[in-house]
């Protein structure tokens, strides 16, 4: 009798060992991603996992199974239901993810001392965790997306929880920036909204222009820029010239005199530098001039006459001696051609 009892106990122990070993072996097999892919409806998720940065760091159950005995039991119950759905064909496509990845599943790999992915993350994660924010609330669909790369956190995601930018609207090029471009060092409160807190003022800007960027620039980009040219109106030909034709890369203290850009011809030697007496911004020709010192001659003499007929050398001096004109510059001089004088 005792012998039979020993055999029975031994058999039970062996059976228990077989069950435990088999169960452990099955658990090892079941924990591998290839096991999940044995159901064809999971192929997309298996392929995206293979292409992700997590493929060499974690398997399915690292993220999709809660730790501890309770997690083990829940996972097996859920697996049994999924097995029934697979064989009956009673499942949704795409697969509906009904559970959220918990922080306890992320923190073994991702923490302040062992960040396996983005080493430039500057958000203060402790503040979020103290408020029971899940990692997946911000870092969702990191593995199962077509690109295989972790998605960047956008301002739109941050604004799901954080107050929108009422003091600094995210419009234009600012709408595409990541939060940490402006909020450096993980500091979000009290960020200076002035342009120069992020953008350095170029050397060629007028000294003291800081804080007035919106006078020339807008949120769509640095170019094209508007500017205040009230001290030198851009009219006529000046409308079509480029900025560097007058400013040469330096915009402060540019002289506004005509001769600073235009070289006067030799025939203008000794003349006033106020070119507007004869010329306009519409062009050098036709030129306007004052003939109030020649009496009525220009109205009574032979016409048409060119400027060089009377001004053969330079325009500040005139000569009556010329082709088909007079033989003398003195009043009453002998006339030539058809031109007479008073």
Note down, in words, how this protein is organized:
The chain has helices at 2-30, 33-36, 43-51, 60-64, 68-88, 103-106, 125-130, 135-138, 155-158, 243-247, 297-300, 307-310. It is an all-alpha fold. It has 3 domains: 31-151, Di-heme elbow motif domain (Multiheme cytochrome fold, Orthogonal Bundle); 194-255, no CATH class; 257-342, no CATH class. The longest helix has 29 residues, at 2-30. It starts with a helix and ends in a 32-residue tail after the last helix.
Indicate the structural class: mainly alpha
Number of domains: 3
Instruction: Name the shape in a single word.
Output: rod-shaped
State the order of secondary-structure elements, H for helix, E for strand. Answer: HHHHHHHHHHHH
Features:
single chain; 342 residues; mainly alpha; Multiheme cytochrome fold; 3 domains; 29% helix; 0% strand; rod-shaped; disordered C terminus
List the helices and strands and how they pair.
Blueprint (H helix, E strand, L loop, with lengths): L1 H29 L2 H4 L6 H9 L8 H5 L3 H21 L14 H4 L18 H6 L4 H4 L16 H4 L84 H5 L49 H4 L6 H4 L32
Summary?
The chain is built from 12 helices and no strands. With 342 residues, the protein is mainly α.
């Amino acid at each position: 009798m005792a012998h039979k009892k020993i055999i029975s106990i031994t058999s039970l122990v062996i059976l228990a060992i077989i069950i435990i070993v088999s169960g452990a072996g099955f658990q090892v097999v079941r924990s591998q991603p290839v096991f999940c892919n044995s159901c064809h409806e999971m192929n997309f998720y298996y392929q995206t996992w293979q292409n992700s940065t997590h493929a060499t760091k974690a398997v399915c159950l690292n993220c999709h199974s809660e730790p501890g005995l309770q997690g083990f039991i829940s996972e097996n119950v859920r697996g049994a239901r999924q097995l029934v759905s697979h064989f009956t064909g009673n499942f949704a496509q795409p697969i509906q993810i009904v559970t959220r990845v918990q922080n306890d599943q992320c923190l073994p790999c991702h923490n302040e001392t062992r960040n396996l992915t983005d080493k430039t993350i500057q958000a203060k994660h402790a503040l979020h965790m103290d408020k029971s924010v899940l990692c997946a609330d911000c870092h969702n669909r990191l593995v199962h997306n077509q690109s295989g790369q972790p998605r960047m956190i956008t301002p739109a995601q941050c604004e799901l929880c954080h107050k929108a930018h009422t003091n600094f609207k995210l419009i234009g090029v600012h709408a595409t920036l990541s939060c940490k471009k402006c909020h450096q060092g993980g500091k979000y409160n009290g960020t200076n909204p002035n342009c120069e807190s992020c953008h350095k003022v170029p050397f060629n800007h007028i000294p003291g222009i800081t804080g007035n960027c919106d006078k020339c620039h807008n949120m769509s980009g640095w170019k094209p820029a508007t500017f205040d040219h009230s001290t030198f109106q851009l009219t006529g030909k000046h409308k079509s010239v480029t900025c560097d034709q007058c400013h040469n890369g330096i915009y402060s203290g540019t002289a506004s005199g005509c001769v600073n850009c235009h070289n006067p011809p030799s025939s203008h030697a000794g003349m006033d530098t106020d070119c507007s007496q004869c010329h306009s911004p519409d062009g050098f020709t036709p030129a306007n001039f004052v003939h109030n010192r020649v009496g009525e001659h220009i109205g009574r003499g032979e016409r048409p006459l060119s400027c060089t007929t009377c001004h053969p050398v330079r325009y500040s001096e005139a000569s009556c001696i010329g082709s088909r004109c007079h033989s003398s510059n003195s009043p009453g001089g002998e006339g030539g051609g058809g031109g007479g004088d008073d």
